Amino acid sequence: MKALYSSFITIVFMSTQAQYFKPALRHQNKLLLHYKIQLQQQHILLDKVKAALPESLAHHACYCVIADRKVFIYTDTAAWASQLRFYTNAIHSTILKWREYAHIETVQIRILTSSPLTQTSCRKPIVPAAQTIKQICAARAHQQDSLSQALISLSNVLEKKRITNSK
Q: In this structure, what DSSP letter does residue 67 have?
């Protein structure tokens, strides 16, 4: 009797569980679809921008975004950004031909910066060998001017760094 009752409870539980999860599984995620369409439009925009640029510069236009009547073009470095700024009028007219109803006022060139999540850790400083540190200390040890004091201080700091790096 207990086995029959427990199987009945399991069936009832699974049928109620199925009622709640079926609508959730049938629900289409419109938010992801919206982002997918936006991403496709940005790729098309990037292709149009690259078509307006000379071939040597087109490779350095990495991303394009339209926001608040502005077109933002992202590039690798400041050197390429300065070169791309000469073509903002050509880019602007190309975008207006492509999207006549878009009220684009300006084209801005921005430089891609690396995010803190993708940055590599800082490299460790190169500390000279113990013999070099001793030579720095001994070079002006017999004199008492400010340069000698600075070299002694430098050798002390380098010695501490060498000891901590060797651990």
A: E
Q: Give the H/E segment covering residue 108.
A: strand 106-111
Q: Does 92 map to a domain?
A: yes
Domain residue limits at 134: 130-166
Q: 40-46, long-range: CB within 8 Å, 24+ apart, which pairs?
A: 42/66, 45/71, 45/95, 45/98
Contact by Cβ (8 Å): 107, 88: yes
Query: Does 153 lie in the same domain as 106?
Result: no
| Residue range 62-110, pLDDT digits in tens | 999 988 889 999 998 899 999 999 999 999 888 888 877 778 889 999 9
Long-range CB pairs of 159-165 (<8 Å, 24+ gap) are 159/130, 159/133, 161/125, 161/127, 162/127, 162/128, 162/129, 162/130, 162/133, 165/124, 165/127
Domain count of the fold of the chain: 2
* 81: its two tokens: 């950004």
